[in-house]
Amino acid sequence: MSELHHLDAIDQAAALRSGDVSSVELVTHHLERVDRFGAHLGAFVTVTAERALERAAVADAALAEGGAPPLTGVPTAFKDLTFTHDTPTSMGSVAMRDFVPPVDAYVVGLLERAGLIGLGKTNTPEFGLSSYTDNDLVGPARTPWDLSRNAGGSSGGAAAAVAAGLVPWAQGSDGGGSIRIPASACGIFGFKPSRGRVSAGPAGSDWSGLAGDGPLARTVRDAATLLDLMAHPMPGDLRPLPDPSVAYAERVGRPPRRLRVARWSATHLEGISPGPDALAAWEQASRLLESLGHEVVDVPNPFPQELEPQFNVIWSSGIAAARLPPGAEAVLRPNTRYWRERGGRASAVELTRAMQFLELTTRQVVTDLQAYDAFLTPTLALPPQPVEWFNESGDPVEDHHRELLFTPYTALYNMSGQPAASLPLHWTDEGLPVGIMLAAHPGRDGLLFSLCAQVEAAAPWHDRRPRNFD
Question: What is the C-alpha to C-alpha distance for residues 134 and 118, in angstroms, rounded to an integer?
Fold first, then answer.
């Protein structure tokens, strides 16, 4: 058998069912890797080794008895923004260091009832506000391809853990690119589902329609399978989508028909352009799609620049409304204080207008793109950046500008509610991963999985692993 951490989650589950390995052995193996590499990567805020081993023993008993769910005993990890009722959830903030939620997030319950075993909570920037992962608890998350560079954010710890084989797959969340950004920076596959596909309940809120949970994995089939476990609405959800009529894992095995793919590389932001590595990845992906029989059509970027300031009103209002414990303001990072202050200045009228503008504008964009089935852009404008690059100036305004230079594409699909994925198809001459982004129309998550799986089969990446983490 290959090294256990070289197996994707589906193959790990098969090894458990066949008896080639026990869940205790599998969890122990991954915990040893967490102990060996986790701190270097900044992958975890909290490791729950004792609880994981207890659950692994229960999983082994269930597997021995027969009838256990097919993924019983496979390790995973939960982002430190995601509520876990028995484990601290710091949200990447010193102010929340000792916070233990009173309930599990609905998605945590779904994954644990499916038999998955969480090894801990993965690193995230303070309150998930940044497109890079750094905080005052454990410091930055680093891409395993170059430890001097940030893993991206805000699911940076999760992406680093998956890329380095600390877990085969992980839950992430995405409000402006926070699954796809670190997927690109860490050379793995990340999938942001359609708006409403995954419940934010019971304590979370989908008030803005921007954020949702999704999978980070090394293979498309793993991501599809993980989303199959997540994609069940909770009663009372604001924007529920029904369970898919065909499982996403099944869609992976169905090549799509010939598709019309619209592509653009220009950003919607004046003065911000993709770098040469992003363009090279995008051109390479275009040729690959054409070789698979799809029609690739150049179109102008359909999203207007006016979306950016309106998005910022909504983004800042959300963090401004967050209820923090007494004394928290004094220990918040400058970037967090910047967004809270900015949001605190927005009136209810301004917030309402911003939300209406996003809805009306992106609805028109989606309507105008009905002639196309899928959309291709770079994931990021730049490769993974040095750890200190984003906030080295100490000025939150400059920090925000550098984040826009880095990630001008991803948040548009949060505004429109479309499913979007980052695929690790390109590496720079220095060995840094550069993702490309494929998206589809709202609700067409299954079609997007079919396309991503077809691309993966034509240009597989699973066996390409970062050195020094084998």
Answer: 22
Residue 192 annotated to the active site: no
pLDDT per residue over 30-62, tens digit each? 999 999 999 999 999 999 999 999 999 999 999
Q: For residues 88 and 48, give the distance between their C-alpha atoms in angstroms, rounded to a whole number.
A: 10
Point out the catalytic residue in the list 90, 93, 130, 154.
154
Residue 24 domain-assigned (yes or no)? yes
> Residue 465: inside a domain, yes or no?
no
- Taking every pair of C-alpha atoms in the chain, what is the biggest distance, in angstroms? 62
Of 23, 90, 178, 286, which is the active-site residue? 178
Tokens standing for 282? 């995008």
Q: Identify the helix (H) or strand (E) that includes residue 375.
A: strand 374-378
Span 179-207, pLDDT tens digits: 999 999 999 999 999 999 999 999 999 89
Residue 464 belongs to some domain of the structure: no
Q: Is the residue at 470 inside a domain?
A: no
When divided into structural domains, the chain yields a total of 1
What digits encode the pLDDT tens for the residues 258-317?
A: 999 999 999 999 999 999 999 999 999 999 999 999 999 999 999 999 999 999 999 999
**Phi, psi dihedral angles at 120 (to 5 degrees):** 155, -165
Angle formed at CA 407 by CA 406 and CA 411, multiple of 5 degrees? 165
The span from the CA of 235 to the CA of 213, in Å, is 17
Two structure tokens written together for 357: 């503008």
- Specify the 3-state DSSP secondary structure of 119: strand
Strand, helix or coil for residue 289: helix
Angle at 191 between CA 380 and CA 235, to 5 degrees: 135
Could you tell me where the DSSP H helices lie in 66-173?
106-113, 156-163
Could you give the CA distance from residue 333 to residue 355 in angstroms, rounded to a whole number?
A: 27
Q: Is 416 a catalytic residue?
A: no
Active site residue: 22, 23, 79, 317, which one? 79
Full domain range(s) for residue 376: 4-458
Q: Give the CATH number, domain containing residue 31.
A: 3.90.1300.10
- How far apart CA 299 and CA 4 sit, in angstroms, is 44
Tell me, what amino acid is at 199? S
Quote the pTM value. 0.98
Q: Coil, strand, or helix at residue 351?
A: helix
Question: Residue 313: which residues within 8 A CB-CB, separation 6 or more?
Answer: 343, 346, 350, 351, 354
Catalytic residue status for 79: yes
